Amino acid sequence: MATIKDVAKLAGVSTTTVSHVINKTRFVAEQTQQTVWEAINTLHYSPSAVARSLKVNTTKTIGLLSTSVEAPYWAEIIEAIEKKCFQHGYTLLLANAHTDFDKQRAYLSMMAQKRVDGLMVMCAEYPESLLRILEEHSQMPMVVMDWGSSQASFTDTVEDNAFAGGHLAARYLLERGHRDIGCIPGQKERHTGEGRLAGFIKALQDAGITPRDEWIVQGDFESESGYNAMQKILSQKQRPTAVFCGGDVMAMGAICAANEQGLSVPHDISIIGYDNIRNSRYFSPALTTIHQPKVELGEKALEMLLDRIVNKRDTAQRLEIHPQLVERRSVIDGPYIDYRR
Ligand SMILES: Nc1nc2[nH]cnc2c(=O)[nH]1
User: What stretch of H or E contains 96?
Assistant: First the structure.
């Protein structure tokens, strides 16, 4: 592989001049620049990022400590981050730790050793042990993307207003004349599980309805859990007329369970999801859902992190995104439509 010395020799200049041409760090005469680039192209020389990093003390690399890329929700956020990183000339280093603490610790240490310029964190669950090691690594500029309203002085955060989104979903069902409403939330340990459920419960209580425990069946954001939870809800003597699923993928499982029991969504039971994953428009029926601004979440988080890196900001910032209702075909009017308050 050609080295910078080979390029300098072929171009008849010093290695310092080659370096200045590549990095545009000092004026070099037009003709000399051209000779150097011709030598670079002839030798297929590729400048060493390692050597550059040692010189300028940045690696132009962003680390992402995440959960998985398997679920569409994560995939859409990570895609947005990766695109933005590319636009800004950064390489994204992806570390899926699957809520495994040993893996999270190992990856954090690798990111630190690789001298990433900044760290994005999307670990889904934040037990004390994880928070402690994140704080231990807070010499790296950091943004935590899914930690809700939690405030920490060592990192930037993004508030996704999960409570407001759950409230919005339940309010919509109430306004469409449903009062017997079930829920399949994601894990309580996750802000998107607990926050969305809390908003749902509050909306029912505000409408004078006591949520029925037997209609709130725990899911885990996977389609199988939505399927099993819906089977459990439908096996009861009295059934709800509508169900709020705390994630679209669980809604997909729930629709499948209803269909297999000979029920039609929305005519026999209405279903509303959350996330507005790309494919939810192609569910059968097209899913009414709460839009989580995933692209905005990824982009805003990265921009906040770059601000920390480039402008050396060291005070914590918090940005917000806001969920929105997307009406499609999986909810119809319930039996109380004429008695709405
Ligand atoms: N799969 C998955 N989807 C989500 N949507 C919102 N939160 C989550 C999560 O933790 N996992």
Answer: strand 91-96
